[in-house]
Each structure stands twice: as structure tokens, then as C-alpha cells.
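Recall from the previous lesson that a structure prediction takes nothing but the amino acid sequence as input. Here we apply that procedure to Glutamine-dependent NAD(+) synthetase from Immundisolibacter cernigliae. The sequence below is the only information supplied.
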Amino acid sequence: MPRELTLALAQMNCLVGDITGNVDKIIELSATARREHGADLVVFPELALTGYPPEDLLMRPEFIERCEAGLERIRRAVGGIAVLVGFPHLSKGELYNAAAVLRDGETLALYHKHLLPNYSVFDEKRYFRSGSRPAVFELAGVQVGLTVCEDIWGPAPMAQSVRAGAQLIVNINASPFHVDKQAEREAVIRERVSASPVPVVYVNMVGGQDELVFDGGSLVMDAQGRISQRAPAFEEGLYLARFRHGRNGLEPVPGEVAQIDSVASVYQALVTGVRDYIGKNRFAGAIVGLSGGVDSALTVAVAADALGAERVHAVMMPSPYTADMSLEDARAEAEALGVRYSVIPIADMAASVEKALAEEFAGKPRDTTEENIQARVRGVLLMALSNKSGKLVLTTGNKTEMAVGYATLYGDMAGGFAVIKDVPKLLVYTLSRYRNGLSQVIPERVLTRAPSAELRPDQTDQDSLPPYEVLDAILELYVEQDRSAEDIARATGASLKTIREVIGMVTRNEYKRRQAAPGVRISQRAFGRDRRYPITSGFKEPRGD
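The prediction returns the following C-alpha cells.
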């Protein structure tokens, strides 16, 4: 009777471009998988050697040379276990997104990714050529077939491997998170298994890389399409998967199946994105302008959970229009989280700016200009604190505000990372209540009072915007699904007048978004590298009746 086959799934957090560091981690994890777990194969994510996505680093010859040297170092250093590693492979002048299986100085298999995604946040056709051949190798009496990430989203690569004799498919990934992405992945893998009934091992990386967050969720699916094992989301580590030969062929030994919670996953994505952006870029910590409103409240909570309270500095910058309850609630949250808290009034500074501009503004009424001066004074203060401390300013604007331009360029948009840039306003409230379910840190009044920028007397957001229930619904259909005004009206019941006003705001404020800080992507279509529209454009939405 053949023995069990043991795979160690390395849910690894890579640093893009740090080939030496990534190789060190691969060698260390491989040794652990062999020494402590007796694994036959340790499986690393797609492009684990470089991190994902390496973007135009792939165009630098010295970068590819270092990758080749790194792969050779793994080949020499690891023994007694097979290692499956993703890397860029230069062959006959063409670059491939590749996977190699190394054991005791030899290459057991080499695979070139067949399907290259070139949509959404992916642009692999800019860098890589497609492969066309399967790669199947023998391991402990089992024929194992290789695929890479997007290959599992189309039927041909896995079917080709099974026709070539594969009894088990290993699919390595750098699959970024968005809401409910894990359910989509598992549905697609189940489709592949229904057509080619062999077990699938799916290994995904974890960690943040600029806007993208990778959530792990590595899993094993049996030949009947059942999840026999699922690794925890957002947790780096080695997860063992065992297989035995049964009556119906190769069968996975059931393991732990980590549960998935949609809201918790989004919150974990934000925490992971902040932790890795600040950590990998070696900032000392984070600075947040804490206003007493819900957006900054959620941002500070995420920062404290990501970095530890001792590395977070919350700054309240009251103006003459700041309500007493805003001051009280901001202080209460800072104390509940244990972060450093400062109060720096801005009235005198804003007045000085207005005085300097008095001659230029003579005869002109007060308007949003004076409101924006307050926001820009705050931006100056936060950036000065950032320069002096080495901490990064986290901006607090949500996706709804970014969409319609309800933010001040060089004011509340000033900063290095936009934590909730892809989080619609209503989801901000949901995430805040979720965080309070872990421990009460955001005052209840913050979640129930009418939102306000507090830049003029008695101001509320709804003075300038439709109700958020209406606005978020319109924006989801227009921004994320490219639906027409008429389609949106039928789907939401909102008036065409309101919808067209919202679309106009989205279009006019493209220039602001182009200057915004990067932020964590949690939706299927985020502003930035995902949704790319021209700033200068003569296109107008059709005006059907």
C-alpha cells in the first residue's frame, strides 16, 4: 500500500523586489516543513521569489539575473524535500510566469503559466509570454500536475494536466482580496473539478502590497468538489495537507476548515494593508487626524489594530465650528484605544491665511474657499508632524467621498496612505460596529449622529450630497459596474436628475482622485490601478428619457 503524501502549504507574505529576503524565507520554511513535519513537498505562492506584482522591475535585466541567482540558491540549499516555487523565468529571450519543482539539486518539473490575466488590477501580458505545455511529475507514487493562478479560472490548463496523467493538481496563486472573493474562487475550482475529477491544492499568498491585499485562504478540494481543508485568512504560516490512496483514487485526509466572515474579512484586509504598507516601507508609525466623525474613528481603530497603540498618534484640530461632542468623542476613542492624543486648534492659523488673502478676496463672498483653508491648515499640521516623527499620515476619506470629490485636495486628502479609500460610507458604519463588537472603542454617538465636515455652522453632509443610502447604491452601479443612468434608475428607484448629478460629480473629480494617496482595495473595482479613466475627456453620458 503506498504511503501517505504530505504537502506543506506555505501561505507566505512576500516583499516585492526583496529577492534575498524572499529566498531566505523560502529556504527557512522548506527546512521547517522537512524537519518538523516530514513533508514531501512544500508549496509556495505564485512569484514567491519576487513578490507580486513586481511590475516594471521585470523589465530590468539585473532584476531577472538576481531571480536566477536566487532560484539557484534555493536549489543548492534545500535537500530532503521537494520545493515548488513561483518565479519569473527567462528562456530564449522570452519571460514567463513560471513554477519549478526542485529537489536535491535537480529540477523535477518546470511549468509556464498558460492564462495571463490582463484585466482589473492585472497586466501580465505587459511582461510575460504564455506557456502551452502541461507539467506533471511523480511524487511519492502520485502524479502531480502544476498550474498557476489564472490557469484555474479557465478549463483548459487543468484538463490538459489531467489528460497528461495528473492525479492531483497544485495551483499556486497571488490572488488579491475583494469582498466575497473566497466564495468566487471556490466556485471556480469546483467547476474545474466537476469537469476533471481529481483533487486540487490551492495555495495563495498573504500580506499587503501597495493597494492590493492578499488574503491566503489556501485550501484542498477533493475530487467530488468538497472543501476538505481551508487555511485561515490573512495568517502567514505552513499548513499541512495529507493525501492517501482510497477506493476512488487519491483522497485528501480531512483537516481544519477555517470559517469565513465577510465583514470580518474586510476589516482584516484593512488591518493587513496598513500593517504591511507602513512596515514594509519602514515608517515609524501612523498619524491620523481624529475629528470625532465615523471615518476617522474607523481609521484610527484600524491603525491601532495594525500597528499597536504605541505607534499611533491621533490629532484633533478643532476649528470654531467643531462641536463639543466631537471633541469629547475623539478623546474618548483615543483613550479607549490607548493611542497618543494631541489637540491643536486651527482657528488662529486659518485666520492668518484669510488675513493674508484679504486683499485678493476683497468684495467676494465667503464660500467653500474659506472652508478648504481650514482643511488645508490641518493638512499642513499633520504633514509637519509626519516629517518630524517619521510616521506616515493616514488619510480618512471613504470611497463615497472620493467618488464625488467631497474632499479637499491638499487638505484632508494630504497623506501617504488612504485606509478606507475603497470603503463606501454605509460599509464604514458596518465595519465600525463590527470593531465595537470586538471591544467598544468608537463612541455610540459617533455612529448615530448626522455626519458633518464641520467647516461651517450647522453643516451636514446631506447639505451637499444625496442621502448615503441613495448615493452608495448609485455609485456601486456606476463606478463598479459601468451601468447607465437609465439602468441605475430602474435598479435603485432614484431619479434620473439625481443620478446624473452624481455621475457629473464623479466625472469632474477624476483629477482629484489621480492625486489621492493609494489605499487598500476591498471591492471588485477600486479607484487607482483598477478603475482608470482619463482626466481630460469630452465623453458625455447619453441623456435618454
